[in-house]
Amino acid sequence: MLIKNAIIYTEQDRFLGNLLIDQGKITEISQDSLEVFNEKVEIVDANQLNLIPGFIDTHVHGANGSDVMDASTEAIQTIAKSLVTEGTTSFLATTMTQSPDAIERALENLANYQNIDHGAEMIGIHLEGPFIDKKKAGAQPVEHIIKPEINLYNRWQLLANGKIKTVTLAPEHDLDFQFTSELRRANLNVSAGHTDVSFSEMKKAVTAGVNQMTHLCNAMSGIHHQDIGAVGAAFILPELKAEIIPDGLHVDSAMLRLIYQNMGPERLLLITDSIRAKGLEPGEYDLGGQSVYYTGEHVRLENGALAGSTLRMIDGVKQINTILEVTFHDIILMTSINPAKQVGVFDQKGSIAVGKDADLLLVDDDFNLKLTLKKGEIVYQGVDQ
Fold first, then answer.
1. What is the distance between the alpha carbons of residues 288 and 276, in angstroms, rounded to a whole number?
2. Helix, coil or strand: residue 356
3. Global pTM value
4. Band of residue 384 on the pLDDT scale cut at 50, 70, 90
5. How many CB atoms are located within 10 Å of the residue 150 CB?
6. Considering only CA atoms, which of 60, 149, 106 is closest in space to residue 289?
7. In angstroms, rounded to a whole number, what is the distance separating the alpha carbons of residues 229 and 224?
8. What is the pLDDT of residues 101-128, one digit of tens each?
9. 55 in Cβ contact with 315 (< 8 Å)
10. Does 273 participate in catalysis according to the annotation?
11. CA angle, corner 125, sides to 256 and 87, nearest 5?
């Protein structure tokens, strides 16, 4: 495929040019015309739309009626097909706190899952819980929360065929941070979440290897003038990246501006934390064996606690673009480059560069999605906005 007449955003630059794809990879990028001698090459005229890398969502529970914990091939396929319609070309399938048996069924299913051509690519697993804090459980079932156990984790990673890339845990329950250290030695992404950790404990956890925050501000200790907790740690410890749910509900717009001013686009990862209700009508749905209620605006447990989101990534990007003064390069950092680096796939994905997968989006200046390409194949065409 030849994409011509596009505003191309590479890692360092932006220019009007052309891009050639072969065998699912980007093979040439040029400001000059590219000669194509193969009559089978498909030509896409971008009409000066913006060509950016596909989004990488590192925290996805479900979409369109399916959930990772359903532990079926069909469920993951449904999620994958739904994600490309919002510009997400790669994702981490995210489990949640449940019984060991339920988690193991989900992991075994993901271990055997084969990516489909017409959907987003599952590039790994995010194990969210059960090694979290009961006081900050949020929508995670309290009865299944346990202390970090390295032998249990090792069993799960084996069942997952090594696909677990990120583990969310409460650092305060990791005795002497042995669990964290072991995971970091194995190049895992260790994310503090559902945690009541103090700032002093968080500093020790970062030294041991914690390198990320799960959905910053949500289900964690906030800033107090005598202990700045997990949120304050994210602000001032440069080793930490942080997920953020940009739906305007999980984090207030004023707080989002404060986060951005303190962390910048270099340390943020936009996520959806979406559940099966995404793409469906308002109503009652299941999340980890619990009833959740989708109003059309938000999803909550019966007790009023937020329970994931129905956010589409492209809508989160529009929200960020409205609230903050960001550039296209800032958006690319938060949606593609940072997550790719964080889960160890930046050699293949996350930016527009020769040799990388042709996971690409065509968007207008307001981030209306016109085209999604997954490894050089058109998997979604947006309607005119």
1. 11
2. coil
3. 0.97
4. low
5. 14
6. 106
7. 7
8. 999 999 999 999 999 999 999 999 999 9
9. no
10. yes
11. 55
Secondary-structure class of domain 55-342 per CATH: alpha beta
Query: Rounded mean pLDDT of the chain?
Result: 95
Residue 103: both structure tokens together: 């988690």
From the list 99, 189, 62, 195, the residue with the least C-alpha distance to 138 is 195
Helix (H, G, I), strand (E, B) or coil at 40: coil
* pLDDT for residue 342 is more than 80: yes
Which helix (H) or strand (E) segment holds residue 381: the answer is strand 377-381
Residue 245 burial class via C-beta count within 10 angstroms: exposed 0-12, middle 13-18, buried 19 and up: buried
Question: For the chain, how many residues are written?
Answer: 385
Q: What pLDDT was estimated at residue 385?
A: 42
Question: Cβ distance 338 to 241 under 8 Å?
Answer: yes
What's at 198, amino acid-wise? S
Cα R_g (the chain), whole angstroms: 20
Under a CB-based contact definition with an 8 Å cutoff, are residues 171 and 200 in contact? no
Residue 351's closest CA among 7, 84, 12, 80?
12
Q: Are residues 90 and 98 in contact, defined by beta-carbon separation less than 8 angstroms? A: no
Take residue 69 and report the two structure tokens written for it.
Answer: 């914990």
Task: With a cut of 70, say whether residue 322 has pLDDT above it.
Answer: yes
Give the count of beta carbons closer than 10 Å to the beta carbon of residue 76: 27
Which H or E element spans position 169? strand 164-169
Burial of 155 (0-12, 13-18, 19+ CB in 10 A): middle
Tokens for 186, please give them. Answer: 């194995």
CATH 2.30.40.10-classified regions of the chain: 2-51+351-381
286 touches 67 (CB < 8 A): yes
Among residues 70, 174, 273, 357, the one annotated as catalytic is 273
Q: Report the side by side order of strands in the sheet with 121-128.
A: 55-60, 88-94, 121-128, 164-169, 189-192, 212-213, 241-244, 268-270
Amino acid residing at 99: S
Q: Which fold has domain 2-51+351-381?
A: Urease, subunit C; domain 1 (2.30.40)
